[in-house]
Design a protein that fits this description.
Blueprint lengths: L1 E5 L2 E5 L10 H5 L12 H10 L5 H12 L5 H15 L16 H19 L7 H13 L9 H4 L9 H15 L4 H12 L15 H19 L4 H15 L7 H23 L6 H10 L5 H20 L3 H7 L10
Antiparallel strand pairs: 1-2
Length: 339
């Protein structure tokens, strides 16, 4: 049992299994303060992490049912369950994922960010049909499935697929869609949507047959970037990303410290440009989401990204290339997703 301050009081709660640093009592008290303009940092963390409960699926289902009242939530639950089974290695043809950065927790975070953006756009009257939204969620669930090994030999080094994992993800999702008798156009559409998560890929909306699909792709691509860089454990996870790159033959950086030093420039020169131009500046829809869903008129994703970058800047200035110094600043352990 743990005792933590929540809403200004001391409460007793048990730790949840889904995310090691998430305390259920905080979620129990969120509705109590739904109309309050002030919330503790811990409550904001709970809201950002997964919504009103410790399981992000609950928030995903709630938001999907709000913007698509006629949608089949049982089908969305099945997809969520199937993806968890695939990542855990309990699905035929797959071994358990062994990557520390592009893992199931990241997948859940991207799906949650995706539905939050759809929800924000809905309240901006930028409406998409339920069918397109569902295909966007499917793409978010499977966008990193290409990182998973598909036999015992490959399982020794799943991250070896990092360099071209999007193509494998498309193929895996295609197989899943056909096995589950989804319409044929889902395969083509989801292939297009997943391409928006590729940093090197540039979309030409003038060549898109369906502008709704273009917007959907921008949402998923934006959600992928926001979920990564706004994560509370983003900085601690960067060495895991470097390991994935090295295993895959990506040699842009000589060490994990080199990658971390370059992250500030990478954000300013690549990520901001991609978010604002290629992905259509969808990120502000997050503020609309948090305002309408939680009465919080803030973009928690962009705020958290800036906090991460500011902290990273401080570390680079204080530590330079002193590895032991970095270890004093980065002491959080990224939690695992609940399988």
């Amino acid at each position: 049992m743990l005792k933590l301050p929540c809403s200004g009081t001391v409460v007793t709660a048990s730790k949840t299994s889904a995310y090691g640093n998430t305390i259920q009592s905080c979620y129990d008290r969120l509705y109590y303060s739904m109309k309050e303009t002030f919330r503790t940092n811990f409550q904001l963390f709970c809201i950002f992490e997964s919504g009103n409960t410790a399981d992000p699926l609950d928030e995903i289902i709630l938001l999907a049912s709000q913007i698509c009242p006629q949608s089949d939530c049982s089908l969305l639950r099945k997809v969520h369950r199937d993806v968890s089974t695939i990542f855990s290695g309990h699905s035929h043809g797959f071994e358990a994922g062994d990557t520390g950065y592009h893992n199931l927790r990241h997948t859940h975070s991207v799906v949650l960010a995706t539905i939050r953006l759809f929800h924000g756009l809905y309240h901006q009257n930028r409406l998409l049909p339920a069918d397109i939204i569902f295909q966007g969620l499917l793409s978010a669930y499977f966008h990193d499935s290409g990182m998973l090994p598909q036999n015992l030999e490959e399982a020794h080094n799943g991250a070896s697929y990092a360099q071209h994992h999007e193509k494998r993800s498309i193929a895996i999702l295609d197989h899943y869609l056909r096995d589950n008798d989804f319409p044929n156009q889902y395969c083509r559409n989801c292939e297009t949507i997943i391409q928006y998560t590729m940093l090197e890929w540039e979309a030409d909306d003038s060549e898109m047959e369906d502008n709704r699909l273009h917007l959907c792709g921008q949402v998923v691509g934006t959600a992928d970037l926001l979920a990564q860089m706004a994560d509370r454990y983003y900085l601690e996870s960067l060495p895991l990303l470097f390991q994935e790159h090295r295993n895959s033959g990506i040699d842009k950086h000589t060490s994990a410290l080199d990658l971390m030093h370059s992250t500030l420039d990478f954000h300013d020169q690549v990520i901001k440009k991609r978010l604002n131009k290629t992905l259509g500046n969808i990120a502000p829809a997050m503020q609309t989401h948090f305002r309408t869903r939680w009465n919080i008129d803030r973009n928690l994703y962009l705020e958290n990204i800036q906090l991460n970058l500011d902290y990273l800047k401080k570390i680079t200035e204080d530590c330079s290339m002193d590895l032991s110094c970095w270890g004093k600043y980065l002491r959080r352990n990224p939690p695992e997703a609940n399988l």
